[in-house]
Amino acid sequence: MTVTINGTTGYTGPIGAIGDLSTTGNTTLGDASGDTLTINGNTASIPNGLNFTNGNIGVGATPSTWNSNGRGIQLFNSANRVSAFATWYGAIGVLNDAYYGTDNNFKYYSGGAVSLYQQSAGVHTWQSAGSGTAGSTITWANSMTFDASGNLGLGVTPSAWVSPFKAIQLGTYGQYIAGQTNSPDLKVGSNQYYNGTNFVYSVSGF
User: What is the rounded average pLDDT of the residues 66-92?
Assistant: First the structure.
């Protein structure tokens, strides 16, 4: 069945169509803010590049196939690159040229270098990776982590520093600059952190 409304013909009342429904000219559906528009289907496309698929939105192209536990708004450009504002498993983030795949892994979109910023449970992380193959799994490198206690790790997740210390930790061997919130003292050291009672080793064997 096809229902076609051409030109400026006005119609008041419900329209039900099983099959194709097309209109030519300006089309207004509903006449009040409380009206509901329901589309029964997995995909909706609007000319000029706005696409809806399985709860995801693509601006400029059809969105990638996202994991059902994630949702993304993808913005495509003419160079076949994509940026996305997304959420997955309670996290929210911004991805450059990547998406969250159906196998619970982040995937390359075009194969170029990728980056990710995300926040979850008060923790902020920045990650990156070099170029790869479109559709393949990304192995992220940790660029920076700001934890929920106010400690910053550069190239590493910071150790579990406990108040009264706040620390900037550098690299995997626990080099740090730390200050006390109740003192003007500044500590500089490596391979240790304050666990609330004592300074303990960050890494074994050093």
Answer: 85
